[in-house]
Design brief:
Blueprint (H helix, E strand, L loop, with lengths): L2 E6 L3 H22 L2 E5 L7 H4 L21 E5 L3 E3 L15 E5 L10 H8 L5 H11 L10 E8 L1 H14 L10 H10 L3 E3 L6 E2 H7 L11 H11 L2 E3 L15 E2 L4 E2 L2 H11 L8
Parallel strand pairs: 1-2, 1-3, 5-7, 8-9
Antiparallel strand pairs: 3-6, 4-9, 5-6, 10-11
Length: 282
């Protein structure tokens, strides 16, 4: 089966971040699992429609591009993702006629993390009710009690290219649509196309920060270690609205279940960062 990893990286800031931080892990993953890596570094649609809303929508046009027509399936990844070197093949989990994706906030939606979910969303009624409200606020019927995070998906140019372009050209961006996410969720789930991916294929760094690492705003030196721990538990670690944190990724940090190893310069920063403000180094 011919398969590709595809992303869109437009603008020097995003190109620099992807090439310096994400690309090595993507190339390793592509080599292990036989993907071709295709990176669009230009706008696919520079018409008024393409320019008046977030560039995130343009991922929906990639399946129609000539570069992808000979591939059976495509793995889309937002550019702000780091891949665990041991991650399994995502495409192999998805029948060719289905669209593989992970529900949004899959980790925080677990009942044991209800307090963190409520704090993150300012919402007490739970994930299913929040998803129904999400659809309603975008004038969409709720096809299910969840919605998808469209930063990672598996789809087929032959089976889904026309549908994805239809979503792009028919739906509008609204204040609470999370760019294309509401439209994507409504159409894919509503048409019975959704195939659940293992949630580890789209682990949101935001969820880890909210649930487990709320201290990072006070001790930012801990970012590299906490990112390494989150990546150990994830297949794909997605930084989403916290893309700046991605710069803190340090491949020198080892965080296994029985071993933690830090470079000396990072250990020193963490030690200084943990000292209360009133305590001065001797």
């Amino acid at each position: 089966m011919n398969k590709a990893i595809v992303t869109l990286v437009v603008g020097q800031k995003y190109r620099d971040l992807w090439h310096s931080v994400a690309r090595p892990s993507w190339e390793h993953y592509a080599g292990r699992h036989g993907y071709q890596l295709i990176v669009f570094e230009r706008l696919i649609d520079d018409s008024p429609l393409g320019l008046e809303r977030s560039l995130a929508w343009q991922k929906l046009l990639t399946l129609r591009q000539s570069e992808l027509q000979h591939f059976d399936q495509v793995l889309w990844l937002d550019s702000d993702i780091i891949i665990n070197p041991l991650a399994p093949c995502a495409v192999s989990q998805v029948p060719i006629e289905k669209v593989g994706a992970v529900p949004d906030q899959a980790l925080l939606s677990h009942p044991s993390l209800a307090t963190a979910f409520a704090r993150n969303n300012g919402w007490q009624a739970g994930p299913a009710a929040l998803s129904r409200q999400f659809y309603a606020s975008n004038n969409l019927s709720a096809p299910a009690g969840y919605h998808l995070n469209s930063g990672v998906w598996v789809a087929s140019p032959r089976h889904h290219g026309e549908l994805f372009e239809y979503i792009y050209r028919t739906h509008q961006q609204r204040p609470h649509s999370y760019f294309e996410q509401a439209a994507f969720s409504s159409e894919v789930i509503g048409r019975g196309l959704h195939q659940f991916l293992d949630p580890r294929f789209n682990t949101l760094w935001l969820e880890y920060r909210v649930a487990f690492y709320p201290f990072l705003s006070q001790v930012p030196a801990m970012n590299p270690l906490c990112i390494a721990i989150a990546l150990r538990n994830a297949f794909f670690l997605h930084f989403a609205v916290l893309a700046e944190d991605m710069k803190s990724f340090d491949p020198r940090v080892v965080a296994n279940f029985d071993t933690i190893a830090l470079p000396s310069d990072l250990s020193a920063k963490i030690e200084i960062g943990w000292r209360p403000p009133s305590v001065k180094p001797s």
